[in-house]
């Protein structure tokens, strides 16, 4: 990988997909099913075992350091529970590795000579010491690379002790079997990475194996699997407790409702009296509202009837006054006409004979009588019209 690619990967891992305003890389989110959840948790076997004898090649899912950075930022505020997916992935991978280890053991058992259980236990002791020496030597190299000389010297002392134990175990194993069989190379399958180990391997070979990337990668994967199992168990326990708490709350509410319903059923008289009081109060309130509405209607009706009667009486009085005024005017006009007529007749009577005067007097009396009857008839008609 070039220096520029390394710098780009470091920036992606630190800043995520939104660095430099690159929107094309934001088309896929870390929560997408196409993204490898084991890669987000930094435990994908394709990344851990790359460049080893058991290199798995490129993962079928998306691997992006920027998406891992996005997930690390978002996981601080929300739990996505990706540990379950990663745990399932690692479990399937470790199961395949353990299956290969068992197959290798069966193959060795078929090819190598049969030995007794006692001799096999002594050979197993030699293998265990070889493994211990290899791990200590790998640790010495790591401490030396870090510059921790004192610690590496202490570990070398432990290596010398393990070597002495190994020589004793080899002597015991050699004495327990024939020389011809002891000269044969006894192989053993590594329980961690399923690689073959020899009984007579030197320290350099053991250090290379136990400090190699393949063996350390399998150790990292197995440790990460145990950690994920613990985390998933804790989260599942927490979720179960939350569910149990919510269930208890619902049951408590249901019991409270049941207790209330039973208390109501035990005191039916009290509940009936309450219902009766409620019904009575409601009916009384309805009656009050009805009364107030009826009173308001009566008041409005009275006011309207009074106003209408006043207007009718006023119009009737006006019509009566106007009719009386008209009759008075007519009577005045008639009296003035009669006065003028009588004066005219009187002046004519002076000039005429007594006989003519008598005739005229009779005629005036007759006309005056007819005029009074007409006036009486007209007044009666007016009163009937007014009524």
Strand content: under 5%
For the terminal residues, how far apart are their CA atoms?
A: 126 Å
Strand order of the largest sheet: 1-2
Outline type: rod-shaped
The count of helical stretches stands at: 12
Taken in chain order, the helices and strands follow as HHHHHHHHEEHHHH
Which parts are unreliable, with pLDDT below 50 for 5 consecutive residues or more? Answer: none
- Kindly report the average pLDDT value: 77
How many beta-strand elements? Answer: 2
Helix content: over 70%
Could you please describe the fold and organization of this structure?
The protein is an all-alpha fold. It has 12 helices and 2 strands, in the order H-H-H-H-H-H-H-H-E-E-H-H-H-H. The protein has a two-stranded antiparallel ribbon with strand order 1-2. A hairpin with a 6-residue loop joins strand 1 and strand 2.
Which properties best describe this structure?
78% helix; 2 strands; two-stranded antiparallel ribbon; 387 residues; mainly alpha; rod-shaped
Question: Topology, pairings included?
Answer:
Elements: H1 3-15, H2 37-40, H3 45-48, H4 65-74, H5 83-111, H6 117-146, H7 149-175, H8 179-183, E1 187-189, E2 196-198, H9 203-210, H10 213-266, H11 268-351, H12 354-386
Antiparallel strand pairs: 1-2
Helix pairs in contact: 1-4, 5-10, 6-7, 6-9, 11-12
The gist of it:
The chain is mostly helical. The protein has helices at 3-15, 37-40, 45-48, 65-74, 83-111, 117-146, 149-175, 179-183, 203-210, 213-266, 268-351, 354-386; strands at 187-189, 196-198.
